[in-house]
Design goal:
CATH topology of the domain at 6-67 and 183-251 and 346-402: FAD/NAD(P)-binding domain
CATH class of the domain at 6-67 and 183-251 and 346-402: Alpha Beta
CATH superfamily of the domain at 6-67 and 183-251 and 346-402: FAD/NAD(P)-binding domain
Distance between the termini: 36 Å
Strand content: 15-25%
Number of helices: 11
Structural class: alpha/beta
CATH architecture of the domain at 6-67 and 183-251 and 346-402: 3-Layer(bba) Sandwich
Amino acid sequence: MRTVPYWIDNTPRPDDVTVDTPPDTVDVVVIGAGVTGLTAARRLSDLGKSVVVVDAQRLGDGASAINGGQLNYGLKAPTAAIIKKQGLDVARALWDASLDAIDLAQRISKEDGFDSGYRRTGAVSLGYHKSSIEKAYRTKRFLEETFGFETTVYEGEELAAVIGSDEFTVALVDSATAAIDPAKYTFGLARAVARRGTPIVERCRVTALDRSGNAHVVTTSKGTIRAGDVLLATNGYTPKDLVPEVRRQAIPIGSYMVATVPLPDETFDRILPGDRVYWTQRRFLNYFRRSEDNRLLFGGRPNLSPDLDLYEVAAGMRATIGDIFPEIAGVELTHVWGGNLAATFDLLPHLGRTDDGVWYAVGYGGHGMSHATHLGTEVGGLIGGATEDSPFLGLPHSTRFYYRGTPWFLTAGGILFRGLDMIGR
């Protein structure tokens, strides 16, 4: 079993899109070569700005190229809670942005002429408890009445049409969600950015950010860069000391995936009819889908830690797969890997600018492929002067007095969440 991401094993990193050293002066330094940073750089380049993208790791080492590859509707925060706190107009703008992001990823792939593995599959949200059935109908009515968004509820014998498992009581199915190959998409974005003449510099860690008049002085492990603007696009890999006020908003949480050996078509016809993407309605949710080469790609987390032993994770994932799909219990796994997402205390993405003038976009809560695409493009427009506002820009960016960048509370939080999942709360 390989401890490398299946996606990158299947689509190796391009070797012709990075440069060894950054330029001395640019209009914008983008810190982070994931989807947020690359889509921002793409937009800024199209607006005539000189840009450099730097990353402390290799291209694709962060979550952008190794995640579940789902472009989901909505946000991590419950929509009803957003309406209560922010009002219906803001909630509708955020909802529309989440749907626009699904289309935007497809449009970017087409405009720049690369295969991202994009498929408009629809999704299945699966509930475990009897109480989940009424909740699914309430959600269906709420989404249709509030946003005109259509879903279908399956229960009882109807469930076999969307999931081949007896573990679940209900499924809420939509047609808006899309699947994407995260490595193909991230590396396609990198090539598109490089073709625009924007340098991408790997293993280029930013060690200090300072101001000199109207300029930012960005000190890196490969030299110093002067820039008019800086974008922090590091999400679950945001360092503690570089821009502390941003890290205090973003909590790094580990998420893990496994890939099985290829399975027969008839097996998938039984367990995942319709070839959609799937997730379960739990705090410690699982998400899964069929790969192009007929593997079950299965993700989740046993707790919130970003530093778990991968072989132990794989053993737990295989057991969970067996619980959900008994006919493939004990299936051989070929890959196991993990990465960091970033959650926020209000479960909303945070887009803003610090008092020192550093732009940032972080905190996607597991919806990173869609939110990173949208917010990266949007913040690129804001920095480049093409747009003046965003529905995400005016949101309050809450933190907690007890969080200074080290998430010491994850163990206790994990125990609580596990207990709530067991009782269906």
